[in-house]
Design a protein that fits this description.
Layout (H helix, E strand, L loop, with lengths): L2 H5 L1 H6 L1 H18 L1 H14 L5 H50 L2 H6 L2 H8 L1 H34 L2 H7 L3 H38 L1 H6 L3 H53 L5 H13 L1 H28 L19 E9 L9 E9 L3 E6 L5 H8 L7 E6 L2 E2 L5 H7 E4 L10 H6 L7 H10 L3 H6 L17 H15 L3 E5 L7 H14 L4 E5 L11 E6 L2 E6 L1 H6 L3 H17 L1
Parallel strand pairs: 3-8, 3-9, 6-7, 7-8
Antiparallel strand pairs: 1-2, 1-4, 4-5, 9-10
Helix pairs in contact: 3-5, 3-8, 4-5, 4-13, 5-8, 7-10, 8-9, 8-14, 9-12, 10-12, 10-14, 12-13, 12-14, 18-20
Length: about 575
């Protein structure tokens, strides 16, 4: 049960001063809280024996008020120190998770779904924070504070009465232990179900257009209701055990009260303790209710925190597939990119997606990559971005193995426009500035001109300040592609990768964008993957991928002479264009 504190020792070691201060202040406040009941008992005895004077009464009341003020001040200090420390842990862990997510490769996101990762970043972190705050409080109150009350009851009133009143405690320990084990197992299942539901909601929101187009609203609603019912039932199972804590505590506390009051009255009749002592004892017994409840709360919180921490640590413990070399080499300029007998297969696949690819690219060249769907075009780009390990052969940049160059440096060179454009729920300006945060409006308008987006921006209600909505829902497919192109252009990267990123624009717009590219990208390397041959006819070198192999290569003119797949597709597309125009 206490393993959760051991797992968090890295945090407690870092903030040990904060937690030592909070715990010491909590103990002092608890000790001060034990004095007023003694004053009450003393007052009752003074009244019983008719020795209470006005002066003594004033002193007792003044002492009580002073103790109350001191108790309040110290309680504020430990409360603020302890719970602000727990908030720091939540913030720190969330930052670690976010940093971890940003360093992970696609393999990680294939294993963990977005909804589950969100659940671990919210609900689970909240449970961990509760453990580091309220968990520490209940630990101190259920151990040190309880022992302090018991010691005062035993030493200052009667050990016989104290031991008799504490008979229910061993029963409580056994019952609470069983409840705790059950809470851990059920809470883990409930959190997993919550993650699944999160993922379902995300997919439904992202795919709302498809759901409506296929009239699947009712079916999706039924699926969601089924998942929420599953989450509900699993949380009900947790609540059932949770609900047993309080009545169990009340029964045991009531038993302690019964023993204390009955046996205590007997001791008063026998003149072994005074009436004031009995009143004080019962006040202490009342104060003992919270520490006894705290035992149950402690077990509950620690088991929940332990389950959540295991889930978070599982995520943080996932080792990145792609890492920097121990001593990465610094490459000042991208003079060449060379693929030498490069073969590759995805971790989940047994078949090679690339087979012995050889390609030499000089700085300033434009490389066209074409081929059927699934031929390996995107895979080639992912290897350049170092998104996957397991490359066979050699991929070098300026003669240096790309594995020996830091990830940060490689990705700082590259401007990547993927097939599926990612738009952030911000303005168009902010989406383009993602490529370069300090870009001025003048520079943004220039790259929008390159991406042939100026006419579109004039038609949008708020121009650059137009909100694009969740995943760019307010923009058309062609508009999203051109905003993504502008975002890459403003970065002005050494290597620009366009992965079928003009498929949603018409041929005329594509031709204008290509023309702008040719002027702007002189002395810089550009890769263009496309299904339309017109997008690559200007390229210095074109490769045709087929089943992961280079089936044809050369310039547009050289490929047209080969009478192969490239020529066939080019002529077919030209015919289709003529039919459309006519």
């Amino acid at each position: 049960m206490f393993q959760v504190f051991k797992k968090l020792d890295w945090f407690f070691k870092h903030y040990w001063k904060r937690y030592v201060f909070a715990i010491v202040a909590l103990i002092i406040a608890s000790a001060i809280g034990l004095i007023p009941p003694k004053l009450v008992g003393y007052s009752i005895d003074e009244i019983q024996f008719e020795t209470l004077t006005v002066k003594l009464l004033v002193m007792l009341i003044a002492g009580y008020l002073v103790l109350t003020f001191i108790h309040y001040a110290i309680s504020f200090l430990w409360d603020y120190t302890l719970f602000s420390g727990a908030a720091i842990l939540e913030r720190w862990t969330r930052s670690r998770l976010m940093d971890h997510f940003l360093r992970m490769t696609p393999t990680f996101f294939g294993k963990y779904r977005t909804g589950d990762l969100m659940a671990r970043s919210t609900n689970d972190l909240r449970s961990i924070q509760l453990t580091a705050g309220f968990g520490v409080l209940t630990l101190v109150d259920s151990s040190i504070f309880m022992l302090m009350i018991v010691a005062v009851m035993g030493f200052t009133i009667s050990w016989k009465l104290t031991l008799a009143a504490l008979i229910p405690l061993p029963i409580m320990a056994i019952v609470m232990n069983k409840y705790g084990a059950s809470i851990h197992a059920r809470f883990t299942k409930a959190q997993a179900a919550f993650g699944d539901m999160n993922n379902e909601v995300l997919e439904s929101i992202r795919g709302v257009r498809v759901i409506r187009a296929f009239v699947q609203e009712k079916q999706d609603e039924k699926r969601f209701q089924k998942m929420t019912e599953d989450v509900y039932q699993k949380n009900i199972e947790v609540a059932k055990i949770d609900a047993l804590f309080e009545p169990t505590m009340k029964i045991l506390v009531g038993l302690s009260y019964t023993i204390g009051l009955g046996y205590g009255a007997l001791l008063v009749f026998e003149n072994l303790i005074t009436l004031g002592d009995l009143v004080t004892f019962n006040v202490y017994l009342g104060m003992l209710i919270w520490p006894m409840f705290a035992v149950g709360e402690l077990i509950n919180i620690l088991q929940r925190g332990n389950a959540s921490l295991d889930r978070v640590n599982e995520t943080l413990g996932y080792d990145a597939d792609v890492k920097d070399a121990e001593n990465p080499k610094l490459v000042s300029l991208v003079n060449s990119i060379d693929f030498t007998d490069v073969s590759f297969s995805y971790p989940s696949s047994k078949q090679n997606q690339l087979v012995k690819v050889n390609l030499n690219v000089k700085r300033g060249q434009t490389i066209g990559i074409v081929g059927k769907t699934g031929a390996g075009k995107t895979t080639l780009f992912k290897l350049m971005l170092r998104q996957y390990p397991g490359l066979v052969g050699n991929l070098t940049i300026s003669g240096v193995d790309h594995n020996e160059i830091s990830l940060e440096q490689i990705r700082s060179w590259i401007g990547y426009v993927p097939q599926d454009q990612i738009m952030f729920s911000k303005t168009i300006r902010e989406n383009i500035q993602f490529g370069r945060s300090d870009a001025s409006d003048e520079e943004i308008f220039r790259v929008m001109d390159l991406a042939h987006f100026l006419d579109d921006i004039k038609q949008l209600p708020n121009g650059l300040d137009t909100q694009v909505g969740e995943s760019g829902v307010t923009l058309s497919g062609g508009q999203k592609q051109r905003v993504a192109l502008a975002r890459a252009f403003i970065k002005d990267p050494e290597i620009l990768i366009l992965d079928d990123s003009m498929s949603a624009v018409d041929g005329k717009t594509e031709a204008k964008i290509i023309e702008h590219l040719r002027k702007e990208r002189k002395n810089k390397t550009t890769f263009i993957a496309a299904h339309r041959m017109s997008a690559v006819t200007h390229a210095d070198h074109i490769i045709v991928l087929e089943g992961g192999r280079i089936a044809e290569e050369g310039t547009h003119e050289e490929l047209m002479k080969l009478d192969g797949w490239y020529k066939e597709q080019y002529q077919l597309q030209q015919l289709e264009n003529e039919e459309v125009i006519s």
